[in-house]
Amino acid sequence: MNNQAESISSDFTFDWQSVAQQMLISRALDDLEEFTLVKEKKVLYQFSARGHDLAQILLGKILDAKKDAVSGYYRSRPLLLSIGISVEQCLQSTMMKAGGFSNGRDIGVVFNQPNHDGVCVLPMSGGVGAQYTPVAGWAQAVEFHNKYLENNEWNDAIGLVLGGDASVATNGFWSALTMATTLSLPMMFYIEDNGYGISVPSSFQTPGGNIVKNLESFKNLQIFSGDGTNPKETSELILQARHSVRELRQPTLLRLTVPRLSGHSAQDTQSYKSAERIAFEQQHDPLPKLERFLKKQGLLSNDRWDKMVSEAQQYVQKVCDQVEQQEKASPADIERFAFSEKNDQDQPILQTQGGILPSQPQFPPSSRDKSPEAGRINMVTAIRKTLDFELQHNNKMLLFGEDVGAKGGVHAVTLGLQEKFGDQRVFDTSLSEEGIIGRSLGLALAGLLPVPEIQFRKYADPAEEQFNDCGTMRWRTNNRFAAPMVVRMAGGYFGCGDPWHSQCAEVKWVHAIGWQLAMPSNAEDAVGLLRYALRDNNPTVFFEHRKMLDHIWARRPYPGDEYIIPFGVGKRILSGDRLTVVSWGGTVHMCQTAIENSGIQADLIDLRTLSPWDKDMVLQSVKNTGRCLIVHEDNISAGFGAEIAAVLAQEAFFYLDAPIERLATPDIGNPHDPVLMNAALPNPDKILEAIKNLDAI
Prior knowledge:
Elements: H1 16-37, H2 53-61, E1 69-71, H3 77-82, H4 87-94, E2 120-121, H5 132-148, E3 159-164, H6 171-182, E4 187-193, E5 196-197, E6 200-201, H7 211-214, E7 222-227, H8 231-247, E8 252-257, H9 275-283, H10 286-296, H11 302-324, E9 341-342, E10 348-349, H12 379-393, E11 397-401, H13 417-421, E12 426-428, H14 433-445, E13 449-454, H15 464-476, E14 486-491, H16 507-511, E15 516-518, H17 523-534, E16 540-545, E17 571-574, E18 579-583, H18 588-598, E19 602-606, E20 609-611, H19 615-625, E21 628-635, H20 640-651, E22 661-665, H21 674-680, H22 684-696
Parallel strand pairs: 1-2, 1-3, 3-4, 4-8, 7-8, 11-12, 11-13, 13-14, 14-16, 15-16, 18-19, 18-21, 21-22
Antiparallel strand pairs: 5-6, 9-10, 15-20, 17-19
Helix pairs in contact: 1-2, 1-10, 1-11, 2-8, 4-11, 5-6, 5-14, 6-14, 12-17, 14-15, 18-22, 19-20
C-alpha cells in the first residue's frame, strides 16, 4: 500500500488550464441547478459534486485508450466533463429534454455515452454499488479481446469505476474486488471518501471508516490513498494508480478523501452535521487550493482566474438558455425499445453499444425444419449439444458460472465443454450471483455474448439489481446501449422439493422489463429455443426444469444443428374441440397424461415461451372450444395463469361457455417430502379432475 505520493517516471502530464476550466464549469453547473433550476422545477434531481470535482477531473484525464470504459454514480459529472461530455448533454439530461442520455426516461444524474473509439461511459445505475461488477466484466472482456481474440485495439484498455465510501459495504463492491484480484484484471476502483453515506458516517460502512486500512492484507491489489483536495498530491497519486493499472496491468484501488460541500441532494439540509464539521469541510474545498497551486506554479494570474470564473458562469448560463428552448421527448415513443426492434427487412434496429452485430460473427444457417438424428436424447444432452455447436461457431460466446468448468455443472449440462473449448471460453466463477450477472452485463457491453448459469432459480435473487439494470438498459438509454445475454437457470420440482432448489417463480421474469423467458418442456424444444436465444438481440432467461432434464417424456430425437424456434410461438400437442388446456415447463407432460386418460377431446397448448407468449394461438383455441384450463407449477396468486385469464376475459369473453379455470401450486413453498410435494403441486390426477369438472359445465 502507498500512503505517500511518490513521483514516477511517466510521459503523461496534466493540462492544468483545462483542469481549471472544467472545474469552474462543474461548479457553475452545480450552482445554476441547485440555486435556480431546482427551485424552478426545471431540474428534479440534483446532486452537487462540489468537493469531489478536482480529483474526478484529474482522473478523467488518464482515460485515453481506445477501449477504456468508466462507470460512475450520481455524483460523477465532473469526470464526464473531463472526458469530453458537453455541457449541453449534461443539461439536456437533467432538464429532461429530447436527446440527452436517455430521452427523458432516466433521472438526469445517471449518464451513459457509447464510444467505440475512446472512453465508453457504461450506463450508470441508480442503485448504490451496482456499478462495480459490470466494470469487472468489461475488464475481463479487455483481457479476452487481447489474449484470446488477439485484437490489438484493446491492448492498453482498462476499466475504471467510481464509488463513494458507503458503497464499499455493498455486495457489488466485494464481488468485483474478488473478480479483479483473482483474475488479475486491469481495473481501477476509485473510492471518493467524503465520510458520509447521505447522513450515515463511514464508520457504519467499514470498520474504522477507512476501507484502505481493511484491505492492507488483500492479495494482488495495489492500493493508493491520500488527500483528494491537494492538487499536487492528488495528481501524483492518480499517476501512480494509472501506472499500476495501465502499464503494470494490476488491479488497483485509489481512495481519496474529499469533502462533500453540499447536501447529499439539493433537498438535503445536512442537519446531521455539526457546525464544526461543515466548517472543516469548507476549509478543505479543493477549488481555492487549485487556484493557489496554479498561481504558485506560474500557470495563472489573478486577472486570468477571475476571468475564467466569469467565463464559466456565462457559458453555462448561455447553454442553459439554449437547452430551455429545446423540445421535450415525445410521449408517443415512450413504449419503444423495451426490446430490440426490427425494420421492414426484419433486421434488428441495433443499439449503439453492446452485443454482437448479426454479421459478426456470421451465424450458420437456421431453419424451423427438423433434421432428426436417430435415437432419443434427454434435455441435458440436447442443451449440451446446442451449446457445443454455438460455441464452435461464435468465438465471442462465453459460458460460465459456479461449477460449470471442470465439474461440468451441478446438472451435468456443461460436462466436457471446458476441456474442449478451454478455460477462457468456459470457466468457473466465484460464488456471487450479483457478480455473475453484473460481470455478464460488462462482457455484453464490450461486444461479447455471455451465457451465465445460475444453478437454481432461488439463487438468482441476490442478483436482482443486476437483472433489473440489464433488462431496463435498452429502454432507459433509448436504444443507445443493450446487453444481450442468455442466463441459463435451473429450477422446479425434482424427485423431492424444497424452498431453495425447487422454486419456479417464473412470473418474475415475465414482469421484469426487457427480459425474454423460455421454458421448454422437452429436449427438442430446448434445442430450438436455446439456439434462437443465443442469436437474438435481447437478454433472455432460459429456464431448464430440473425434472425435465432427464424425464423420459421429455426425451426426443436431436432435431439438428440448424433447428430454431422463434420466441412467442406455442405448440399444439393435442387437438380437440371440447376444451383448451394451456401449460408450459414441468406440467405439460402431466396435462397430456390427464387429457389422454380423460377420453375428452381437448387442445393442449405448450406455450414454450412466456415473454413473449403466443396469445393468438390461445385465443384461437379458446374461441373454438369455449373452455380453458390453465395449469402451471408456480404459485397461483399473480402467477402467469392470471395474465392469460385476464386476456381471455377481455378478448374472448363472448366465446366462453364456462369460467376460466386455473390449477397451480397454493401460495406456499415447495415441500421437501415427496408426498407433501405431490399434494401441493399440480399432478395428473388433479388435472384430470379439473378437466372433467370443466367439461361437465
